[in-house]
Design goal:
With 533 residues, this protein is mainly α. Among the domains are: 1-38 and 71-199 and 218-358, Sodium/glucose cotransporter (Up-down Bundle); 471-533. It is built from 23 helices and two strands. The chain has helices at 10-21, 27-30, 33-50, 58-62, 65-103, 107-156, 163-170, 196-209, 221-228, 233-250, 253-265, 276-285, 288-326, 332-354, 360-370, 375-380, 389-409, 417-434, 440-450, 458-461, 473-498, 502-526, 528-531; strands at residues 181-182, 193-194. The chain starts with 9 loop residues before the first helix and ends with a helix.
Length: 533
């Protein structure tokens, strides 16, 4: 999970955020930790119980009729093809940018190198499947993080920067703020300044309302793929918890440090070139051998992400479209061959998409806006029997209708979320109540298999007195609160340690220790052998 979300574009994006708005600029993605921890304690075990191969397969164990079949096929194409190739397109674009910045390769030639690398990834992904992808992910992640840490140490301790003390002397105080400034104006002396509406969009809406790869409300995509492949529910929960801590708290600091150093070393970079500071730091500060290691690290990060995206997309298209609806009666050998062909096709489609992407952050914003308002359906489908397939379908379609109107009116991201989320929510709630509920036999089968519990399942639970639904939602909520405290305490504790703020370090790590203790006691009180099989 952690390796997959470390793509070639990730260090560049973090460095760009820091260069533009200081450390606090990372709240644009740090806010997703709220939803990530929600997935850990409320959904990881439920996904493991489902016993399905892909997230999309969920549609037919939870819903009924033609609408369930349509939803499964639609999501297979929507996620496995459309969204997947956009994601691979921006990752390809990022690697091309790195190669141009490091080696002065011309724009006309650089994509041949990128696509050659992609062909290698497609080859081993097609042959090895998920197990091969997981093993190579772990190896590639170690290389990538080792290289990132070495770069941060070398650049920070260079004579131009002068260590942590030199950074603090040469740059304004706002660069080192961990939290954004809430104000009524768009900028405040270069600091990350959010208007009240933008702050509400980021912290109050985005983490639960918008679909985004790797941070789906309730879990989804390749995160769910990993949870369902875990040994049991206990492994699923703890693997997902480790991912959240590593993703938000441990991994970003080497990138943040290089981003801060780039402000000192490359002050001439324009607003749109800030992310290039990371690449130029690699080019200018590393000796030949270490530069080779960093290049290998970026290729490793790139290959890790592309391998997962290809495997994930192929599983949707083959398992949830081709095998389910188009060609049902072939043997396993045929489907394995078909998956390999599909992997190659996805690769070529993503190559075409890459050529049309001009701004990586624009692709991020587009995906979040297209998924605005879907999140609440993805959460409630586990805990409310009345959600049906049309609820999901309407929630997925509505943003595509409203978004062009907002685009024409000049409303900018993230303020667009303040309109997209309520509009989508109103539509899917109305659609839910004017369409037929899911067939009761399907609901009973789902409840018997997943036993999610909660009062919103009372209508079904009363008909199944022999099935004991999950309880202790208060303890799950407490675990979520302290899980959030754990992630942010670790994040700011490590940052405070780097910048020599030892009082803050002590407070943060004490809070983290308390959070771990409370979470462990709560999980233990639920009974490891019963609730986590």
């Amino acid at each position: 999970m952690v390796a997959t979300t470390f793509a070639a574009d990730t260090p560049l994006a973090v460095a760009e955020l820091v260069a533009q708005n200081g450390i606090a600029g990372n709240w644009i993605w740090w806010n997703f930790a709220f939803g990530g921890i929600l997935t850990v304690f409320f959904f990881a075990r439920l996904w493991r119980r489902a016993g399905i191969m892909t997230e999309v397969e969920f549609a037919e164990i939870r819903y009924s009729g033609k609408s369930a079949k349509f939803l499964r096929g639609f999501r297979a194409v929507y996620l496995g093809l459309i969204m997947n190739v956009i994601i691979m397109g921006w990752v390809n674009k990022a690697l091309a940018t790195i190669l141009v910045g490091l080696f002065d390769i011309s724009e006309d030639q650089v994509y041949f190198y990128v696509f050659a690398c992609m062909l290698i990834v497609a080859f081993y992904s097609a042959l090895s499947g998920l197990w091969g992808v997981v093993v190579t992910d772990a190896f590639q992640f170690i290389i990538a993080m080792t290289g990132s840490i070495i770069l941060a140490i070398i650049v920070a301790n260079s004579s131009v920067v002068g260590g942590i003390a030199g950074m603090q002397e040469k740059l304004p105080e706002f660069v080192f703020n961990f939290f954004p400034t809430i104000t009524d104006v768009q900028s405040l002396g270069g600091a990350f300044a959010l208007t009240i509406t933008s702050f509400l969009a980021y912290v109050g809406l985005m983490w639960w309302a918008s679909w985004y790869p790797g941070a789906e409300p309730g879990g989804g995509g390749y995160i769910v793929q990993r949870m369902m492949s875990a040994k049991d529910e206990k492994h699923s929960l703890f693997a997902t918890l480790f991912f959240q801590v590593a993703h938000y708290a441990l991994r970003p600091w080497p990138w943040i440090i290089v981003g801060i150093c780039a402000l000192i070393v490359y002050p001439e970079l324009s607003e749109g070139e800030k992310g290039m500071g990371y690449i130029y730091a690699m080019r200018d500060f590393l000796p030949i051998g270490l530069k080779g290691l960093l290049v290998a690290a970026f290729f490793a990060a790139y290959m890790s992400t592309i391998a997962t995206q290809l495997n994930w997309g192929t599983s949707y298209i083959i398992n949830d479209l081709y095998r389910r609806f188009i060609n049902k009666k072939k043997d396993e050998k045929h489907y394995v061959f078909s998956s390999r062909v599909t992997t190659i096709i996805l690769m070529f489609v993503s190559i075409i998409v890459t050529l049309f992407i001009t701004r990586i952050s624009g692709a991020w914003e587009f995906i979040m806006e297209c998924g605005a308002g879907v999140g609440l359906v993805l959460i409630l489908r586990w805990f409310w029997w009345r959600i049906n397939a049309w609820s999901e379908i309407s929630a997925m379609v509505t943003p595509f209708i409203v978004y062009p109107i907002l685009l024409g009116s000049g409303i900018k991201f993230p303020d667009t979320l303040l309109i997209l989320v309520p509009a989508t929510t109103i539509v899917w709630i109305v659609v839910t109540f004017i369409t037929k509920p899911t067939d009761e036999e399907i609901l009973k089968s789902f409840y018997r298999k997943i036993h999610p519990g909660g009062f919103l399942w009372n209508k079904i639970a009363k008909q199944l007195p022999d099935v004991k639904g999950d309880q202790n939602f208060i303890k799950m909520l407490i675990n979520w609160i302290f899980g959030v405290v754990l992630v942010y305490s670790m994040l700011f504790g490590i940052g405070s340690l780097i910048f020599g703020m030892y009082t803050e370090v002590t407070i943060a790590f004490v809070l983290a220790a308390i959070s771990i203790l409370i979470i462990y006691k709560n999980l233990s009180s639920l009974g490891w052998g019963i609730t986590i099989k």
